Amino acid sequence: MRTHSSLRLLGAVAVASTIALTATACGSDAADGGSAGTSGPKEVAAALEKGGKVTVWAWEPTLKKVAEDFEQKYPKVDVELVNAGTGDKQYTALQNAIAAGSGAPDVAQVEYYALGQFTIGKSVEDLAPYGATKHATSFTSGPWNAVHQDDAIYALPMDSGPMAFFYNKKVFDKHHIKVPTTWDEYVEAARALHKADPKVFIANDTGDAGATTSLIWQAGGHPYKTDGTDVKIDFTDDGSKTYAATWQKLLDEKLLSPVNPWSDAWYKGLADGSIATLTTGAWMPANFASGVASASGDWRVAPLPQWKKGGKASAENGGSSLAVPKVAKNKELAYAFAEFATTGTGASSRVAQGAFPATRADLESKAFLDTEFPYFGGQKANQIFAESAANVGSDWQYLPYQVYANSIFNDTVGKAYVSPTKLSEGLKAWQDASVKYGKDQGFTVNK
What we know:
By secondary structure, the protein is of the alpha/beta class. The chain has helices at about 5, 15-25, 40-50, 65-75, 90-100, 110-120, 140-145, 170-175, 185-195, 210-220, 240-250, 265-270, 285-290, 330-340, 345-350, 360-365, 365-370, 380-390, 400-405, 410, 425-440, and strands at about 50-55, 75-80, 105-110, 150, 150-155, 155, 165-170, 205, 225, 230-235, 255, 275-280, 300, 320-325, 445. α10 (about 210-220) crosses α11 (about 240-250) and α14 (about 330-340) packs across α15. The chain is globular, with a radius of gyration of 22 Å.
């Protein structure tokens, strides 16, 4: 379960902090508080026996129970949970602490798309020497791909966001709309709904970097390619063009509600049916139940519409990992806690509290798959989510400065939502601005 502001993929990190981070990426070793490989499983076991304090920066509420269970299992260890802010606020505080060389936590929650900025900056530990390699097959492909590169493992996946299609069955039935299985059918459904009732829109969309990149991911696009400090950005690949062409129809025909997500108007639209669908990560059910309680029983879950008829492709939208900063004071205990929280009983505990698992064991368990959701009319929605997780493309990459790139989305692609600018033009502008920024920070971009 993700918190309110982390549901929307990050808006903006303070530019000064981002510049400091990428400057570190291109040659500085100031943030390197230790070298990877100095500890291993034996040292981790010894640290647990000796005990000590572990400071964890995270906004994820399910970690409270995990911390209590960890302390019960290891009485000599004290876990201090600190909410240093959600998403961008925590990243700013974390980077400032890393740059200062003091005040950083032992463990930090980092969303997958933001992790690259810390790995390229040599700010987080490679966890492979500590024993993380043994978990290579423990996690689903999307989250695992996000935390490792070659032989290095820079964090352990905490949860995941395989995408699904949430739709208001009551509204669909009223207007005799079939659940779309392709994005072309989705456009047709959008037209039919809005024609039947001009107050009803198939979805809301005011422009969101995370939603855009997730749908391009599902379409097979690869706009970002990163190899160390060598970066390529290309929003003219087939997946990006497929997405842009389809979404442009929705914009041109004004078939999308101009309501901002997570606003009061958005919750109202989901409740009264004027916003009829939502395409997002599998962490969403708890937010429906708490924020749109009055529509319980109206909504259902279906697989994502496909770009190619008969396909099963999916993508991730959201999700976080637990990383160990290089400047952590007790890296062995930090790794032990991260491992406990993301695997085995710790992971199962978080799932029981409403988190969506990144672990194959939890995703494949009968109890998980057979869970009925009263909100969705008793539907066993986890079966759809689990299938989505299994079909996430594993070769997606984010920029090593994705936080900054997302922060300028509305200045580039966002113009397509409020002006005659076409989405393809907005994506090109986003590409150009991201290329320029990367070069300014010392990356080798598009060569």
